[in-house]
Amino acid sequence: MYSMNQDIDHVLVSEEQLKAKVTELGAQISRDYEGKQLLLVSILKGSVVFMADLMRAITIPCSIDFMVVSSYGGANTTSTGLVKIVKDLDQDLTGKDVLIVEDILDTGITLSHLVPMLKMRNPCSVRLCTILSKPSRRKVEIEPDYVGFEVPDEFVVGYGLDYNEKYRNLPYVGVLKPEVYSK
Fold first, then answer.
1. How far apart are CA 39 and CA 60, in angstroms?
2. For residue 171, which phi and psi values (nearest 5 degrees)?
3. I need a labelling partner for 50 at 20 to 30 A (CA). Which of 17, 19, 63, 74 fits?
4. Residue 94: pLDDT over 60
5. What gap in Å lies between CA 183 and CA 151, rounded to an integer?
6. Is 97 one of the catalytic residues?
7. CA 69 to CA 162: how far, in whole Å?
């Protein structure tokens, strides 16, 4: 029987490490945003797993919303440099403290376009939380306010991250075997 695990070269961040880091991030965000109108904005689809865990780790009132913003396409493994909003927010951002929740901060191109756009909608603040960061791939100046793990420039999947819409449901972050994505 086929298992997605056989396509993984090695586990980069274990399920246990993810749980511990999300708990830590949730506690820090709860302290930092106490008494504020926190709005978590999940950038779909990749951040949905992290967002679900993070919102349960936050102990203060918060609301959530979702966006689909893309600079990738299908089986592409590199950013196209083109950013498009596929689904915009449902909520008004006026007076809210927006925390963008991302699965991975890679080149930064998508977020470098998104953050200024959201700031134009009159929030109190716009900050960024990512479970994974690849600083070696950054093409623009953008730094997350909250980071789970810095990862090397390898093709990672799991915990919401995909290759061609597969592997999102792995409970860990693993490095995909090159033969899988170079077919």
1. 11
2. -80, 5
3. 74
4. yes
5. 24
6. no
7. 15
d(CA 162, CA 86): 18
Q: What is the mean pLDDT of residues 4-32?
A: 97
Q: Which residue in 65, 106, 145, 162 is the catalytic one?
A: 106
Cα 41 from chain centroid (whole Å): 10
The pLDDT-based confidence of 97 (bands split at 50, 70, 90) is: very high
What totals of helices (H) and strands (E) does the chain contain, helices first?
4, 9
Judge whether residue 78 has pLDDT over 70.
no
Widest CA span of the chain, in angstroms? 53
Closest CA to 127 of 166, 101, 109, 155: 101
Question: First vs last Cα of the chain: how many Å apart?
Answer: 21
Residue in the block written with tokens 């780790």: 57
